[in-house]
Amino acid sequence: MTRALAVDKCNKAGDVYGKMLVLTFEDNEDAMMNRILSFINTRDEITQMSDLNNHLLNFKGILIDEVQRVIIRENQEIDLTYTEFEILKLLAKHPGIVFSKEQIYDIVWKESYSGDYNIVMSHIRNIREKIEDNPSKPIYIQTVWGVGYRFNKNLIA
């Protein structure tokens, strides 16, 4: 008889695709608990290993490491504030997708804002000054007039 069944899926590369835990009435509580904990720990290790490869955003001329919160451009580390990094990461994780100033504010600041969105424009300007060769003619963060901003999808490495 089956008491509990848990299914998880993962391959050798860490991508999730298949694992099963079956507990029966014959198992005592200690044996069941040990099997459950073993199942959970293995799953967490696989998830952590697969996440290690997904934290780098690589574009022509710029590398964004989400885990270490580092920006590398032309072999030089670029210092961004917390908010600048969050805005750049948001746009870079969704190249080609246009975000309005309101959306950027709501996502990065994690709250609705009903005032002046010039704060977003100011941060975008600061980011451009730090990552662009010519901030007045940006190639990474593009302005979509009357709509918002997007990361240039043509720069995906």
From TrEMBL:
One cellular component term from this protein's GO annotations in UniProt: cytosol
User: Which Gene3D superfamilies does the entry link to?
Assistant: Winged helix-like DNA-binding domain superfamily/Winged helix DNA-binding domain
Q: Which Pfam families match?
A: Trans_reg_C
Q: Where is the OmpR/PhoB-type domain?
A: 54-153
Stored InterPro entries = OmpR/PhoB-type_DNA-bd (IPR001867), Sig_transdc_resp-reg_C-effctor (IPR016032), WalR-like (IPR039420), WH-like_DNA-bd_sf (IPR036388)
Q: Which gene encodes it?
A: srrA_6
Q: Which UniProt keywords apply?
A: DNA-binding, Phosphoprotein, Two-component regulatory system
Q: Report the protein name in the record.
A: Staphylococcal respiratory response protein A
